[in-house]
Amino acid sequence: MGAKRTPPSPPPPIRNPNPSLRQRGVGGAELAASAATTTKQMLAFHFLRALSRIHRATASPVTRRTRNIRRAAYSSMARAASPRRAWSRAILGQARARRSRTLMRRAVMVRRRRVAAAASRIAAGGETSAAAARAALPEPPPPIPRQVDEPARADALRRLVPGGAGMEYCSLLEETADYMQLLRQQVQLMQGLVNLFSIESAGNTLNHTKNKKDYIERKRSIWLGRSTNSLSKITKLYT
């Protein structure tokens, strides 16, 4: 009989060209921390760019500027989030609809100024076009009736989370978790800006400028308190 065959030796293991990826792939903690840092940077980038646009705009009342800052904060939060999130799409959709209504009103005002003789006819046409544009906007989805096994807090979460009116409970919980994360980062960013403006306002010697900055700071603090209150409500309902 012939000699007994020996089994072939196993091939050598493939070397990892990047050994650092082996440690990061164990738990994904570093990857998650890097993603959170990137989200914070994107949130700060979009919000500071929106603030610069508001600052370069024409002079407007403090109340309107405060409202624009609040809207810019939420729009920046939606842009920093994933585009697959329903709440971010809902906020950006509201911003686009609001911008289209503003442009439509400006176009109507320009037409009224150019054609003064037919002011009544142009005004009626502008109102008709505005009503048609509002009718062309997509209607929000009808609220889903609460299931038997759903807790009572599901309806409250659907009212607090943007775009949550037509969500199922499992999707609603996922959207709420992501919305809470971005809202918490937004509150931290606004708190840092409020502290920065407080330091600058304390070092200002002009009384009228200081009073104006103090008023703006109080308005921002009020909005920050509302955001914190909204975050605490969602946290109580989610946990």
The tally of strands reads 0
Query: Globular, elongated, flat, extended or rod-shaped: what is the shape?
Result: extended
Report the end-to-end length measured between terminal Cα atoms.
75 Å
**What's the mean pLDDT score?**
71
Radius of gyration: 27 Å
**What is the helix tally?**
8
Uncertain segments are 16-26
Q: What class would the helix/strand composition place it in?
A: mainly alpha
Largest sheet: none
- Order of H and E elements: HHHHHHHH
Helix content: over 70%
Portion in strands = under 5%
Structural write-up:
One of its GO terms (biological process) is response to brassinosteroid. Residues 45-96 form the IBH1-like N-terminal domain. Keywords: Transcription, Transcription regulation. This is IBH1-like N-terminal domain-containing protein. Residues 7-16 have a biased composition (Pro residues). The radius of gyration is 27 Å and the shape is extended. It is mainly α and 239 residues long. The chain has a domain at 31-86 and 152-238. It has 8 helices and no strands. The termini are far apart. The model is unreliable at 16-26 (pLDDT under 50). Helix 7 runs antiparallel to helix 8 (207-238).
Structure at a glance:
This protein has helices at 20-27, 29-56, 62-80, 86-114, 119-136, 153-160, 169-202, 207-238. It is mainly alpha-helical.
Using brief descriptors, characterize the structure shown.
IBH1_N; 74% helix; IBH1-like N-terminal domain-containing protein; single chain; 8 helices; 239 residues
